[in-house]
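Progress against Task 2.4 (sequence-to-structure conversion) is shown through the following example record, which the project officer requested during the mid-term review.
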Amino acid sequence: MKEIVEADYEKEVLNGGSVLVDFYSTECAPCEAVAPKLEGLEKLFGKEIKFVKIFRQGNRELSDKLIVKSSPTLLFYQDGEEVCGRLAGGIKRSEIVRELKHVLGKEKVTEIMATQQPFVTDVDVAILGAGPGGLTAGLYLCQAKINTVLIDIALPGGYVSTTHMVSNYPGFIDPQPGYLLGHNMSEQTKQCGTTYKVAVDVTKVDLQKKEITIDNQETIRAKRIVVATGTSPNKMGIPGEVEFRGKGISYCATCDAKYFGDKEVIVVGGGNSAIEEADFIAKFASKITIIHQFDQLQANKTAQEKAFSNPKISFLLSHEPRAIKKDGDKMMVEVEDMKTKEMKTITADGIFVFIGLKPNLEIFNNQFELDEWGYIKTDEDKRTNIEGVFAVGDVTSKKYRQITTAIADGTIAAISITREIG
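Structure tokens generated for the chain above:
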């Protein structure tokens, strides 16, 4: 891609034609993830649209003028005018193609995409999932000189990256921000030499053949596969939840608590995540109401004591949400008293939901042997029922799901694989 500076902007971007502009930064994991996608798409679409990149920190005046606040940020231009939506953060190839359809037309893009040639990449080990378990497996395998690729539909770090603070990770006296802990794990594995293919669409997985297809183009063929796909937040499954997700309902305090300064918030749940995240949200919100289905919280005693002593936090125990509505900017939550069956409505500015997690197994089409809760069964070496396929971390059947236990799983699987193919 051609690199330009602010002085070139008018000539290269505003002087007619179709242009894609990538504002990037150095030492930026999302920027590194999107770069090969842009290079590949430039080969396909280079005759139809100009691809240019601008170093954001080195062109601050232009970045501020265009209100570009994060890296990477992709802008699309048609005849000097910015068109369609901007893309930022962990950008997928499919998202770029979607915006190109707005610029070049759906038929043109579909025609060009049909000319792309699928290809196969052979590796020793493919790891699906870049959380602590997957990153640890990648680190050990790389240090054993085993050719490893790490694949994730999001950016590296996993669920820990959305955790406010981690206070029980060995080696750190003070609590560590979750995003920083995830970042450091990722950088350590990357520097070792593990190949990253992140913020991709996993379009097909054939565990028997040990093949993983990403972005409908590249098939990664491996001798062994490590599944480390982790978990996702459970949903309440009530009317209004899907409709208002991201529009008043959030599942990530680290991501969204800052938007509720001096506002009233509802937190649904009573386990460690709900209570600890409520304490974090209280740094911003003026009032928090915790709704929990049981008459006692399930969080550890330390977290409970901290929440009970926080004057901003109140509790509505033995209640469950039954529906969510919106009135202007206000969220209206209908809750049921589990003892009296009485219904009441609670009003707030936002809702955070922390009611447990479920394993991310949709892409595997029921190929694994699972426990009664839907998690993958493994042996002591982290092997699954499928030959050559291992599973680690929160997606597996285990008594405790912690960052440290995921790391242990990744270590065990990597050593087991090294002894087999090293």
